[in-house]
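Action item from last meeting closed. Structure (253 res):
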């Protein structure tokens, strides 16, 4: 969500508040956003998965994206998903898969999601249950080819999205409004993304590290010192040139 101003008429949210919303398709393999869609603040999030996700790709989704109709539509279109579902979701178990004893995964089953008499998925999906400490997580997926432990590991990668967005907003100030139009705001967001990518390349090439504010501050100081050195050098050259001109004028006078 991006706080807007009243003059941004396209950023509809309420009668007194304007907000825009940026929908990110985040590439977990490369740790960068792959697609960005900008809408008004009232726009829903689920519909944009269709545009962000391509056939053959696997989406990693939190509970807010749970929808049996969407699961069926993605599955029928050749799109994969690993989505956390609510603990209270109805599940009709069709069969169980063997699980490794002593691991974090406590269930791996083929299920029908939803109430069998009304709102239920038309396809059978895989349900993987795992725990972190005493907390249980339930994942619905149509990735039948992976070990249950890999399905759980895929979902854990989702936190990388929150880490990126938190760092990006906090340190690059990408939502400090400069533009007011939809086009201008998208250009501003893309400029912030390009700055992040350049920092990522720099940190990887120079230090074999992920982006960190420590390296950003070092780079900023390096640029500031280099600029100061260049200005000082130019002043020294100018002073030497003036001295030479003065000597030449004195010699010919």
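Sequence:
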């Amino acid at each position: 969500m991006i706080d807007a101003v009243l003059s941004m008429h396209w950023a509809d949210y309420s009668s007194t508040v304007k907000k825009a919303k940026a929908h990110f398709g985040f590439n977990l393999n490369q740790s960068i956003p792959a697609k960005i869609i900008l809408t008004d603040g009232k726009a829903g999030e689920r519909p944009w998965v269709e545009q962000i996700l391509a056939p053959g790709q696997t989406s990693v989704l939190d509970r807010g994206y749970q929808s049996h109709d969407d699961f069926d539509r993605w599955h029928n279109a050749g799109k994969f998903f690993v989505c956390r579902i609510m603990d209270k979701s109805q599940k009709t178990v069709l069969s169980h898969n063997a699980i490794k004893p002593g691991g974090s995964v406590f269930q791996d089953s083929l299920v029908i999601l939803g109430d069998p008499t009304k709102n239920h998925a038309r396809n059978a999906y895989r349900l993987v249950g795992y725990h972190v400490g005493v907390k249980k997580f339930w994942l619905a997926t149509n990735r039948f080819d992976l070990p249950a432990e890999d399905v759980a590991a895929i979902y854990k990668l989702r936190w990388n999205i929150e880490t990126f967005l938190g760092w990006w907003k906090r340190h690059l100030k990408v939502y400090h409004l400069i533009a007011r139009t939809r086009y201008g705001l998208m250009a501003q967001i893309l400029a912030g993304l390009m700055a992040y990518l350049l920092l990522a390349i720099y940190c990887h090439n120079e230090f074999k590290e992920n982006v960190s504010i420590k390296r950003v501050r070092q780079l900023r100081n390096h640029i500031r010192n280099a600029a100061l050195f260049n200005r000082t050098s130019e002043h020294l050259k100018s002073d030497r040139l003036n001295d030479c001109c003065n000597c030449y004028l004195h010699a010919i006078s």
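Note appended to the action item: The longest strand covers residues 19-27.
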